Amino acid sequence: MSTAKILSAIPRAFQGGGSIRRCCAPPRSTSTSTSSLSSSTTTTTTRTRVHELSTKSRLGIGGSRLAQTSKHGDGQYASIIATSLQNGVRTFECGHGGEEELRRAYTDAIMYLKTKQQEDEAEEETKVETPTNENDGITMTARFGYRTALDADSGDGDGGNTASEGLSFPNDIIIEDDATSILHIPTMPPATTTEDDDDATVQTVSTEAEAPKKNVAYHNLSRQYVSHALASSPLVELQTTHPNVHLIYMAHNPETQGVQMALQGAPIEDVREFVKDRMTDAFVGLEMGVAEGQIGSYGVCSNGLSLPNSHPLHLGWEDLLTAASHAVQEVHGRQENDGRVASLSTLQLPVNLLETYGLTVVENVKRYLASNSSNEDKIPCLPNSINAFFTRPLTCYPDRGTGTGKPFKLLDYQIPTSLETTDNPETQWTHQIPGPTPTYYTPTLNTTMSHFDATHILEAQHIDERKLTSEERDTLDGCKLLQSMIHDLDSNLSSGKLRSFAAYEEELYTNVVPLIHDSFEELDGGTAEVLARFFKAYGESVRCSIAKTTRELLRTGGEGGQKYEIGEVESLQEFALKELWRKRVDLGEGEVLLADRVIVGCPKAEYVIQAMKAADSLDR
Predict the structure, then answer these.
(1) Which of 42, 249, 250, 332 is deepest in the core (most CB within 10 A)?
(2) Of the given ranges (97-106, 201-210, 428-437, 552-561), which has the lowest mean pLDDT?
(3) Which letter, b or e, does each residue of 194-231 get, where b requires 16 or more Cβ atoms within 10 Å of its Cβ?
(4) Residues 520 and 481 sit within 8 Å (Cβ to Cβ)
(5) pLDDT digits (tens, 9 = 90+) for 295-333
């Protein structure tokens, strides 16, 4: 990747004349050391930990969407990593199918930053501190579990590893593409994501073992598959040239292994025991990977951790810790007082202001691990603490995470202040708009309704005292139908029913657009322009309406959630991130932060800057 491509993707405010270094160089004291995750047995004073960690060091960059877009080779992914490193971010998640893309982007970003440093030193004729030191600890996470029969062609497995055509492993679970939503839970990640990571579609599975087929996905947690994933991992290879990288390998959605049993009506206790055994097998492979120096530690990335205990795909944290304990004892044996503990370092789970069950899980885990180790009932061979990485902090599913509808975002939007097309349009945040819609919406609505009032047809009929022609009747009927449709769309803006922009787009392309085409065989230029202008104004108004509805949902504690005192000064995303960063749990000796990392999807470098501003404001 050329330096020019990376530079072109970095926001202008952070380019040129060494300004990147001067504006964004991270304080050394806030860097996350490599040992902070791997040495989980070290005992620290909890209150001290709270004050030692800066908020920006607890921001992670999600990579699911970036892994898809970076394949175009435009330098965007590398620019986001470079911007993140300059601002003190040290945690990067590769997401679904993105190991090679993260490896390449990180390598390009480091090369760019070194080149920039050399240019600055030459210009200033003095030694310049690099914005990211090779000794700074970098945490990267990767997932394993899912793969498709197409991996051999595209390298798009769960971690982006290259598989062999026709390769199968013990305990393969087949994921059905045409699955129903019987269990109402996202399992396998989609090929692409929208504004955040870990959005998922609903799948069911079959345990029938057979040779891999095209367009079929598999889920596997066997130690053999772990060995294969690590042996072919681009991020494992990255550590050989960048020893400051601490790689955490995560079992992705272990609960998927129990879906078929749940569908067949097996007792839930049997399902969970089965999943625990499969997790133990995976953890054995991961413990071996740690022992061989392939990875720094391991973890679990699971939707099931954030589901209530009554849900059939709930993943119990006690089962997870038990599996880790059994695995480390199987690999290393257990000697009394030898101090060896499991290399389990991280739980990654969905948490946001409307999906809060995961907070309870993290509280329970942190309290349990910090409790008196002399307790005979306590699971042996566990670390004193485990880090919690929160994903989907701005993306919520209905019914507090258990619903199957379109997800909605805890976002305010920047929308144009005018419908006129310019090179540098002025924008305004939706939470700063005083009214329910942008100022240009109502005039545009009135113009559109007037255009379809068919006045000229009715006047001609009255003046000429004649019957309408067949074509005129069709046009009049079409105008009435469109007016009714536009009236209904307008009513939706104030109904409070608009929750998801993705749902609106689906409605637009599946119902509204076909209705227009069915009403008119052909649109004249003027009519097409009027409709295009209306839907542009309406789309921005939908964003505004969704943001205001979501804000009211937080204020009133909708969906059975907590009530939040949120004003109009902060954007939804800033408020949501800061609330998660603030949350703490009292362990008796003091408080610790619940979120060790909040993983945010940032498909543009500008979004990294916005997240950093939220972190900085909290630190101040």
Answers:
(1) 249
(2) 201-210
(3) bbbbbbbeebbbbeeeeebeeebbbbbbbbebbbbbbe
(4) no
(5) 999 999 999 999 999 888 899 999 999 999 999 999 998
Q: Which of 121, 24, 4 is nearest to 74 (CA)?
A: 4
For 584, list phi and psi in degrees, rounded to 5. -135, 165
For 143-181, give the secondary structure using H, E and C. Answer: EECEEECCHHHHCCCCCCCCCCCCCCCCCCEEEECCCCC
CA dist 380 and 472 (Å) reads: 82
Compute the distance between CA of residue 214 and CA of residue 212 in angstroms, rounded to an integer. 7
- Chain-centre distance of CA 567, in angstroms? 25
Residue 387 CA to residue 364 CA, distance in Å, equals 13
- Tokens representing 156? 């798009």
Closest to 590 measured CA to CA, from 36, 198, 39, 47 = 47
Tell me, what's the pLDDT at 273? 97
Contacts of 534 (CB under 8 A, 6+ apart): 444, 445, 447, 448, 486
- How far apart, in whole angstroms, are the C-alpha atoms of residue 544 and residue 436? 7
Reading the block at residue 549, the tokens are 């509805």
Radius of gyration of the chain (CA): 27
Tokens found for residue 202? 């609903």
User: Which 8-state DSSP code applies to residue 447?
Assistant: H
pLDDT at 29 over 50: no
Q: How confident is the model at residue 166 (pLDDT cuts 50, 70, 90)?
A: low
Q: Can you tell me the mean pLDDT for 577-595?
A: 92
DSSP states of 22-76: HHHPPPGGGPPPTHHHH-TT----HHHHHHHS-SGGGEEEE-HHHHHHGGG-SSH
Model confidence band, residue 345 (pLDDT cutoffs 50, 70, 90): very high
Which residues have CB under 8 Å from 474's CB, separation 6+?
A: none
Distance between CA atoms of 268 and 314, rounded to whole angstroms?
Answer: 10
Query: Is the model's pLDDT at 159 over the cut of 90?
Result: no
What is the distance in angstroms between the CA of the first residue and the CA of the last residue of the chain? 37
Residue 197 confidence (pLDDT) above 50: no
**Please, what sign has the CA dihedral across residues 102, 103, 108, 113?**
positive
Contacts of 249 (CB under 8 A, 6+ apart): 141, 142, 143, 144, 226, 229, 230, 233, 286, 289, 295, 298, 299
Distance CA 96, CA 369 (A): 30
Tally helices (H) and strands (E) across the chain.
22, 18
Token look-up 């480390």 returns 328
Q: Which DSSP symbol is given to 186?
A: B
For 65-99, give one letter per residue: b (16+ CB within 10 A) or e.
Answer: bbbbebeeeebbbbbbbbbbbbbbbbbbbbbbbbb
- In whole angstroms, give the CA distance from residue 183 to residue 569: 40
| DSSP assignment string, 541-596 | HHHHHHHHHHHHHHHHTGGG-------SSS-HHHHHHHHHHH-EEE-SS-EEES-S
Token pair recorded at residue 509: 């392309």
Per-residue pLDDT reduced to its tens digit, 479-510: 888 899 999 999 999 988 888 998 999 999 99
Distances 479 to 526, 533, 610 between C-alpha atoms, Å:
14, 17, 45
